[in-house]
Design a protein that fits this description.
about 30% helix; about 325 residues; alpha/beta; six-stranded mixed sheet; six-stranded parallel sheet
Length: about 325
């Protein structure tokens, strides 16, 4: 039963988004109960259909569009109610949905009884499509380089490719995000707190205005500001470089895609160590190849820097 309810609420939500993107504001308003309540941070509370209508009709004057829900979660309360939460972005704004309470009415349709969402970013003009793609540099830190505690295979070569993309994104004034891994355990074998090994390698070090997301686990989304940063910036797509192929690069791609983002990995901008498993020995290049192959199965698009520049210059 809960699965069918979840599917029905998801379908109702998708219809609402589709009507919004078609500019059919009246049809969106019609999906609220007459006694519905809506809380919009920081704009205030709107009780009843008339107040909710005034908000949406006023908002429609700014020509919103391209609304997308990401990281959607639906929790079924009973056979007639479910709560949806998500991240959202559109051409002129982005934010979080804390609670959409969908309720099944006597006519067999699902309607919004409560709507609670926040606007994190609101723009005066629509965000350019190019600004919706961010370069994400994952864990390019000193411990992975010669002299570090966990040297990878050819990290300098792959980081040079990462630097070329970084230079391009900076020149075009496109979003750049750095990921920095710091283990909380002082006895960690690498990336230990209060060591120079945690510092981002100088050639790709962040500059003022570029977010640095500090993480303590392999997944860059767990207990970090990454998701909020992506929402605030209105990002749709991530271009990924960094390390390690079999761990943090693989994981950020899987998590991002599961949350609804597009991912593109630049394979010659990715590094890995030489490792052994049981009777098998793998070079860094072999680990990269295996993980790129893995990611092509529902995890990310994979290309190299030469092809990427040919398509994006």
């Amino acid at each position: 039963m809960s699965q069918s309810i979840r599917q029905s609420v998801m379908q109702a939500s998708r219809e609402w988004v589709a009507d919004f993107n078609r500019g059919n504001t009246q049809k969106c308003i019609a999906r609220y109960f007459p006694e519905a309540k809506m809380q919009v941070s920081p704009f205030g509370r709107f009780d009843g259909l008339e107040a909710i209508s005034q908000f949406w009709l006023g908002f429609a004057e700014s020509k919103p569009g391209d609304l997308v829900y990401r990281n959607v979660e639906i929790k079924v309360l009973n056979d007639k109610q479910a709560i949806l939460s998500a991240n959202w972005s559109m051409n002129i704004a982005s934010g979080f949905i804390s609670k959409e309470l969908w309720t099944l009415a006597q006519d067999g349709q699902w309607y919004l009884e409560e709507d609670d969402f926040s606007v994190l970013t609101q723009l005066e003009a629509p965000l350019a499509q190019a600004q919706r793609t961010a370069l994400v540099l994952v864990d390019l830190q000193n411990d992975y380089f010669p002299g570090g505690r966990f040297e990878l295979e050819n990290p300098v070569t792959s980081t040079q490719k990462a630097k070329e993309l970084l230079t391009h994104f900076r020149a075009k004034q496109l979003p750049v995000i750095h990921i920095q891994h710091i283990f909380e355990d002082e006895n960690a074998p690498f990336f230990a707190v209060n060591t120079t090994g945690i510092e981002i390698e100088n050639s790709v070090a962040p500059i003022e205005g570029e977010p640095v997301i500090v993480k303590h686990q392999i997944d860059s989304f767990i207990n970090t500001a990454l998701e909020q940063t992506l929402v605030e910036l209105g990002i749709d797509k991530l271009v990924i470089v960094g390390a390690m192929a079999q761990a943090c690069v693989q994981t950020i791609c899987r998590s991002a895609v599961n949350k609804g983002y597009q991912c593109e990995v630049i394979e010659d901008g990715v590094a890995a160590p030489a490792l052994e498993y049981a009777a098998h020995s793998f070079s860094g290049a072999e680990l990269i190849a295996a993980n790129m192959l893995s990611l092509t199965f529902g995890g990310a698009a994979v290309t190299n820097s030469q092809t990427w520049f040919a398509q994006n210059s």
